[in-house]
Design a protein that fits this description.
CATH architecture: 3-Layer(aba) Sandwich
InterPro entries: MeTrfase_7 (IPR005299), MeTrfase_capping (IPR042086), SAM-dependent_MTases_sf (IPR029063)
Number of strands: 7
Shape: globular
Keywords: Magnesium, Metal-binding, Methyltransferase, Transferase
Largest sheet: 7 strands, mixed
Oligomer: single chain
Pfam family, one: Methyltransf_7
CATH superfamily: Vaccinia Virus protein VP39
Number of helices: 10
């Protein structure tokens, strides 16, 4: 599997698009807002830079793309008011893989600028936004050019399917599963962990070259409570297990081939806090300021703040299936073909109903706040 070719959210603004099925991700961004405000305020008060250069890695498309940007601009504006300073200019880079729906982002820019002009008079003329297509597993920016990196719900995706998932004789080692489950052999768990450690180490090393000394980075990703091997307690592992069960049913009925199921391995890893901390300490370019966890229910934010709405188990299950489909269908369709997607997700829906009915379904989230080691350069101490 060429990960960069299939790892993209469903674009556009249709019923099944990511833009219309990302309320859970919005909830995650709002949960992290206090830490984002703390990090960007601390950075700005250390630099008082005339132009803050900010990069959002894995920005996707839809309303969530602009949510953390608004929070940053709003927070810096309030900070400047307290210090009686003129707000800085903002140079903001939105990064995602080339297959991302950047056209939808660019079409929405005018509305975002209008909102800034309306609510933050004059600041729209100081905000410059550009798209940067490319993988964050590679270099994206010049040396020491970025003040602040932000990434939400992207770093749990691996750069590639781990190596070593097939025996010397060519037999799939994780037969019948598309990801890690309680039946997955230890060697496969180890291969996934090794791939995450390589990817995260490289990510930190690359960003350490692109960020200014003293610059900040805030990362939010799916994680696990323990060692990442318990699919019954870590939400997205359970989702992948339910999809595997659905695919097995389709193999039994002849809708797909068993070899197709056995050859699919989702390039995804949800690390524990200890696994993240270990990589940061070994790589050593950054100081860990915060490493926190919080949990969300599968159907969190289904009402998007309207508490008068009530959803039964079928409504909650549909909500879960729609956002999983918006994220996962490009990968699944590239492997099994688009013709079986409706059947697959209908069957998956019934399994989600059963799990929601029994009270199962929790996501563990990790929030990582970092500062680049080293002193701020003199040219950034303006004001």
């Amino acid at each position: 599997m060429e990960v960069q070719q299939v790892l993209c959210m469903k674009g556009g603004d249709g019923e099944a698009s990511y833009a219309n099925n990302s309320l859970l991700q919005k909830k995650v961004i709002l949960e992290v807002k206090p830490i984002l405000e703390e990090s960007i305020t601390e950075l700005y008060c250390k630099t008082f830079s005339e132009c803050l250069k900010i990069a959002d890695l894995g920005c996707s498309s839809g309303p969530n793309t602009f949510l953390p940007l608004w929070e940053i601009i709003d927070c810096i504006g309030a900070t400047c008011s307290r210090f009686s300073r003129e707000p800085p200019a903002f140079q903001i880079f939105l990064n995602d893989l080339p297959q991302n729906d950047f056209n939808a982002i660019f079409e929405s820019l005018a509305r975002f600028y209008e909102r800034i002009e309306k609510e933050k008079e004059g600041m729209s003329r100081q905000c410059f936004i550009a798209g940067v297509p490319g993988s964050f597993h590679r270099r994206l920016f010049p040396d020491r050019s970025i003040h602040f990196f932000h990434s939400s719900y992207s770093l749990h995706w691996l750069s590639q399917v781990p190596e070593g998932l097939v025996s010397e004789s060519g037999t799939p080692l994780n037969k019948g599963n598309i990801h890690l489950t309680v039946t997955t052999p230890p060697s496969v768990h180890k291969a996934y962990l090794n791939q995450f450690e390589r990817d995260f180490t490289a990510f930190l090393r690359l960003r350490s070259q692109e960020i200014i000394p003293g610059g900040h980075m805030l990362l939010t990703l799916l994680g696990s409570d323990g060692n990442g091997q318990n699919s019954s307690t870590d939400g997205l592992y359970k989702i992948c297990e339910l999809i595997s069960m659905t695919l097995k049913d389709m193999v039994t009925e002849g809708s797909i081939q068993e070899s197709e199921l056995d050859s699919l391995n989702i390039p995804l890893f949800m690390p524990s806090p200890e696994q993240v901390r270990s990589v940061i300490q070994r790589e050593s370019s950054f100081t860990l300021l915060r490493l926190e966890t919080f949990k969300l229910d599968w159907a969190d934010n289904i009402d998007d703040g309207n508490k008068d709405q009530v959803f039964d188990k079928y409504g909650r299950a549909k909500y879960v299936v729609m956002y999983i489909r918006a994220v996962g269908e490009p990968i699944l369709a590239s492997h099994f073909g688009g013709a079986v997607m409706d059947s697959l997700f209908h069957r998956f829906f019934m399994k989600v109903v059963e799990n929601i009915e029994t009270g199962k379904g929790i996501y563990t989230n990790l929030v990582i706040s970092l500062s680049r080691n080293g002193s701020l350069p003199t040219m950034d101490r303006k004001g």
